[in-house]
Amino acid sequence: MKRDWSRYNEELVKRGEIYLCFDFLDNWGHEIKTMNKNKRGRPYEFPQSFIAFTAFLKIVFSLQYRQTEGVLRALSQYISKLRPADYTTLWRRIAHKAFDLPSIDTEDAVVAIDSTGMKVTNRGEWMREKWKRRRGWIKVHITVDVKTHELLAIEITDERIGDNAVAKKLIEGADKNVKNIKKVLGDGAYDTRELFNLLKQKNIEAGIRIRKNASTRSRGSSYRAQCVRERKKLGEKKWKEKHKYGERWAVESYFSAVKRIFGEYVSATSPEGMIKEVRMKFLMYNMLLRAAR
User: Fold this and answer.
1) Distance (Å, rounded) from C-alpha 85 to C-alpha 53?
2) Fewer beta carbons under 10 A from the terminal one: N or C of the chain?
3) Residue 122's pLDDT is what?
4) How would you class 109 by CB atoms within 10 Å of its CB: exposed for 0-12, middle for 13-18, buried for 19 or more?
5) pTM for the whole thing?
6) Does 1 score more than 80 pLDDT?
7) Integer Rg of the chain from CA
8) Tens digits of residue pLDDT in 70-120
9) What is the pLDDT at residue 120?
10) What is the dihedral of CA 272, 102, 265, 46, to 10 degrees?
C-alpha cells in the first residue's frame, strides 16, 4: 500500500506539538475543584491532566524526577499560569496515576498479538559482555488493531513467561475495548489448543500460523484441527493471502515506534517501577497515535 507522505509528515509534526501541549492550563482551577469535591484529607494541588503532561514529559525526554522538576521551574518562568511541582509530589502522583486504554468504536476488528523484550537497564548489554552476568528482560505482550494501529490490550511479564501463557488475557482485554473481534493474527508461538478453543468459543476467526507438521486430528481442539486441514489444503502462501497474515506487521510497527521514540530500556530499578515505566511508554505512544489523527 502506497503511503500518503503528506498526511504522514503532518502526523509526525502534530506528535511534536503534543509533547509541549499546555491545554490543561485553561481548565486548571475547575479540574482541581472537581478532584477535591468530597475528598478527605489533604486536597490536591495539581490537576490530573498536569500530572499526565508531566509524566509524558518525563518519559519522552528520559528525565529523572529532579530533572523534571527543573524543567517545570524553567517553563514556569515563561508561562505564568504554570505552577511547578516538587519532585516528591511528581513521584507520588505519577507512580499512582492510572493509565487506561480507551474503548474504540470498532466493529469486526482484526487484531494482531505479539511480544517483545525491553532491556532492564541501558548498561545491561555491557554487563553481560564484561562480566557474563544475565540481567534479564521485561517482556511486553500486546494486542493491536491492524487497521487503526491502536493498542487494545497490554500485559507485562518477565522473560520467563511464554507468549501462549498470556494469550487469553490479551484476547479478553482487547475484547473489552472494541465492539467485537473478527480475527486474531499471531505467529507460531500462539499455536496452542487452548487459544484455538478460546477463539472458537468467542466466534473469532483464527489467523494463527500453525506449525508445518501439525496433526489433523482434534486431540482436544476440533477448531485447530479444522484450521490445520485448511492450511494443508491451501498451502502456506495462499493461506497467508486468504487471512491477510501480512497485516500482522502492525504489531511489529508498534514495537518499533515505541522503542524508537521512548528507548528500548527501562531506567527504573524496582520490579513495580519497571512495569509502570514500560506500561506508560506503550500507552503514551497510543496517545500520540490518537491525538495525531
Assistant:
1) 12
2) N
3) 55
4) buried
5) 0.83
6) no
7) 22
8) 999 999 999 989 999 999 999 888 877 766 787 777 788 999 999 999 887
9) 78
10) -70
Write the single-letter amino acid at 70: G
- The CA distance from 140 to 154, in Å, is 7
141 by Cβ neighbours in 10 Å (0-12 / 13-18 / 19+) ranks as buried
End-to-end CA distance of the chain: 19
Return the closest-CA partner of residue 148 out of 182, 177, 110, 184: 110
Question: What's the mean pLDDT in 51-63?
Answer: 87
Closest CA to 150 of 192, 195, 114, 102: 102
Q: Distance of CA 61 to CAs 9, 65, 68, 166, 211, Å?
A: 21, 11, 9, 31, 42
Where do we find the cell 486430528?
Answer: 217
